[in-house]
Amino acid sequence: MSDKYPESSGRRRFVKGVVGSATLAGAGTAGVAALDSVTNPSGAGGGPVEYYAVENVAGPAPRGMPMVPLEIDDEGFVRGIYPEVQKVEQKGETVEVAREEIGGIEYSPDWFQYCGVQGYEGVDPGYDGDNYFRYSNTGYDWQPTSGRVNVEDFQDYDTWENDYGDAGIGKPAKATWRSQNTENTMPIQIIRSSIIEDKIESESGEVVDWLDAATQDGFMAILNKCTHFCCAPSGFRTSSYGGADDKIYCQCHQSIYDPYSIVKKSFVAFARPEN
Ligand code: FES
After folding, report:
1. Structural domain that includes position 107
2. Locate the Rieske domain: which residues (predicted)?
3. Domain-located, residue 21
4. Which residue ranges have their beta carbon within 6 Å of ligand 1?
5. In a domain, 275, yes or no
6. 67-109, pLDDT tens digit by residue?
7. Based on the structure, what is the number of domains in the chain?
8. 39 within a domain of the structure (yes/no)
9. Is residue 154 part of a domain?
């Protein structure tokens, strides 16, 4: 059967809501104070932030790369989730703040604000485009070089193989996100794997709550920007170096990330530059 139109799994999907919306809507100061502690006056984010990452397991990278939560539309196209944008009053000014709770964590563009990405149009709430992932023209041999990522192209995900790792550990693609007609491109590693589906079905805990909300039908997405010196890693199943066959490999200084070891991490995000 075609999996173009993903079946409903019956399990709970989204744990989602706008963080602090009730407080922010009120006249009290508590919500405003909380917001001030995590955003600068322009609403451009920055500061300490917790996020879910694919763990760095070897090499010099200081922390994991951030996941991008995703969803699949009725026609099987896969798109990243950008946090809900709210207009809030802050220090007498109306500013746009993008943040929402997904899978038990506060998700915001801060997750991606490192390595210069904080200046990319795609992380800005005002980005003029949609949220669909589009195939990169420098991806895997099998994949299209343009167009929107679709479930149909991943029907063989449980048996797909290349020169690295065993068949069935996941089918990868390289994509871009929120990068149409922009100066800079947000590079995305897509993986579809039954390992993710199995984790959700058989394990429990906060990481599983996150995966349940941030992945769908075995699809996961990662910002493919190495936290070491900012290279775009060659990716999942692209090297045998140091046992990286079934992992994400960064060719610049041999950092390795495990896409199936999801960890909650924190770092100090840069603020987005003022327009
Ligand atoms: S290991 Fe240095 S940039 Fe990736």
Report:
1. 16-269
2. 188-275
3. yes
4. 59-61, 226, 228-231, 250, 252-253, 255
5. no
6. 999 999 999 999 999 999 988 887 888 888 999 999 999 999 9
7. 1
8. yes
9. yes
Q: ipTM of the predicted structure?
A: 0.99
Rounded CA Rg of the chain: 18
Ligand 1 center from residue 38 Cα (angstroms): 28
Contact 167, 112 (CB under 8 A): no
Question: 2 CA to middle of ligand 1, Å?
Answer: 39
- Site to probe by mutation for ligand 1, drawn from 114, 227, 253 as the one with most ligand atoms within 8 Å of Cβ, is 253
